[in-house]
Amino acid sequence: CPFSSTGPLPTCTIRLDREQISSIGRLRRRGEIHSLYLQQNQIEKMENLESFPSLRFLCLAGNRIQRVENLQGLPYLSALDLSHNLIQVLDTEELPRSLRILDLTGNQCTRQDGYRDVVVAALPQLLQLDSQPVHGNTAQEEAGGGSCSSSEEEEEEEEEELLPGLSVPFTVDKDFLVDLRRELAGRVRWRRRTSLEEHRARLEELWERRALLLAP
């Protein structure tokens, strides 16, 4: 069945996941909608999304979409989830330059040569691609890798570095924001642990070399 304006729609967020929807029908303009959930349906084409000109978050994961298209009417789109569809070739010209989070996991297009570099080059504001951070202050982390403790404030600052400016548009969808922040905070802690382990390994290697040089 198509998704269309047959009745009143809720404001701010629309959740129509797992509803056996086969297409996105024409809708009257809904400027107040910021988040649209259409995952786990049977949608084959991205269309008629210009009805939501203020959209910040769009989830179309687990559908039957073959092409990324018709997103030009979404100038504020910050997060796009197209994971586990049927996209074989990705045209980056069809992606809004406003994107900060993009997930194409499970699509054939992610196996293209140079896929990640091409996408990152095309999206100057992108912070996260396929659940992996694009921008991160790794140099600063390595420099401070010898520290055995890090405050919650430092983790929050690094989290904000990964996700700047998204708290305002996503306040309409608190569950999504909480989950996203929890995931990013977990990655911050993992990266810090990894940096600390690498730092300790380098120190051990230096001590071993020093012992060999000083051996009689």
Largest sheet: 7 strands, mixed
Order of helices and strands: EEEEEEEHEEHHH
Beta-strand percentage range: 5-15%
User: How confident is the prediction overall: mean pLDDT?
Assistant: 76
Strand order of the largest sheet: 2-4-5-6-7-8-9
- Number of helices, where a helix is a run of at least 4 consecutive DSSP H or I residues: 4
Number of domains: 1
Secondary-structure-derived class:
alpha/beta
Assembly of the depicted chains: single chain
CATH superfamily: Ribonuclease Inhibitor
Distance between the termini: 82 Å
Q: Spans with pLDDT under 50 lasting ≥5 residues? A: 3-10, 136-173
CATH top level is Alpha Beta
Beta-strand segment tally = 9
Overall CATH architecture: Alpha-Beta Horseshoe
Approximately how much helix is present in the residues? 25-40%
Taking all Cα atoms into account, the compactness measure Rg is 22 Å
Form type: elongated
Predict the CATH topology.
Leucine-rich repeat, LRR (right-handed beta-alpha superhelix)
Region (Disordered): 131-164
Keywords: Cell projection, Cilium, Leucine-rich repeat, Repeat
Protein name: LRC46 protein
Subcellular location: Cell projection, Cilium
Please characterize this protein's 3D structure.
With 216 residues, the chain is α/β, with parallel strands linked by helices. The protein has a single domain (13-134, 176-213), classed as Ribonuclease Inhibitor (Leucine-rich repeat, LRR (right-handed beta-alpha superhelix)). Helices cover 31% and strands 11% of the residues. The protein has 4 helices and 9 strands. A 7-stranded mixed sheet has the order 2-4-5-6-7-8-9, with helices on one face. Strands 1-3 form a two-stranded parallel sheet. The longest helix has 41 residues, at 174-214. The chain is elongated, with a radius of gyration of 22 Å. The chain starts with a strand and ends with a helix.
